[in-house]
Specification:
Elements (H helix, E strand, L loop, with lengths): L1 E2 L13 E7 L2 E6 L2 H11 L5 H28 L4 E7 L2 E6 L5 H28 L14 H16 L7 H11 L4 H26 L2 H27 L4 H4 L7 E2 L4 H8 L6 E6 L2 E7 H9 L7 H4 L5 E3 L5 H11 L3 E5 L2 E6 L1 H17 L1
Helix pairs in contact: 1-2, 2-3, 2-4, 3-4, 3-5, 5-6, 6-7, 9-10
Amino acid sequence: MSSMSPRAEKPPITFWSIRIATISGIPIRLHTTFLLFILWEIWANRAGDVTISLLFAFAISVCILLHELAHALVARHYGYATSEITLSPIGGYTLTDGRPTPKQELLISGAGPLVNAILAGFFFFVMIFTRQVSGDFRLSSENFWQMLCFANVIMAVFNMMPVFPLDGGRMLRALLAMFIPIHTATKITTGTGQVLSVVLGIVGLVIGAPILCVIAFFLFLGASRELANSTLLSLLHGKTVGDAMSRQYLWLAHGQTAQSAADMMSQTPQDDYPVVVGHDVVGIVSSAAIQSAVNTGDKDAYLATLMTRNYLQLTPDVDLTVAAEKMGVEQAPALVYEGDNLVGTLSNLSLQRFIDFQAGAAKKR
């Protein structure tokens, strides 16, 4: 599955993951819980050949990676960069920057299941050629290609379900968005997906398949999260960094201590403070970092040791959805410049306050 929505933070699936490769400039990460998938494969086929189980797990991983790379490469064709691809026990996740048009989202989302369909066709011919046609679906060396064919059919069909965050959900939203506003399309797709998730969960309970209940639960949450993202986009639509930034701010000197800064904070409260040497900004320090240093007895610490150089530079005319996405991916605040002049600051907290204000104003309308 793929995602192209601005987020307040990196998707949880990217936490606790390790970088294993880079393909076509795209970092490939493996979630540490992927080990559970390998252990499950070994346990599920404990009566058979462990080597075949490991080979099958590796082959499925490659199929998932090819699915995600299809999303990334089609997105690149339309000018959208992919930050990373993460493989996990519940599938893959492609984090792509930007907001495609409905037609582009339809093609980007459809690329993954199409690759699985092609792979299923390839493995089908290999299965016929090697005469591995059997009614036995217990993994073994005698039905290895048949099981790979079957697995790719399942992946293609499952991903085409019209449920967020699956590809089918994004494709349905894209089709609807060609005729109605995208936020309305997201609401309809979310509702459809949540109903299907409940039905899937009920089926899991009736037939005694707990894995279906778990999948239904995560699909329901994924649909809710996509609706929240869409609501965020609708609130930020047409807004710029200049609308949300703080224009009144205090500068702190590189050589100031935490206690000195804390005394000044009480007069001019901010989320983040530019740190300067002379007239040059060299970093940014959060009020939380200053207060923490004072509270832990490190009040004489210089701001040079508390500040971070990891911040974004934006201009007031930047689209606020773009800024929110960049701040979420980089997990960093922003300083706003007009030319060489610093004219404001934008933190994740101030952005959230702006969103809350917009949401309140929308309710009153």
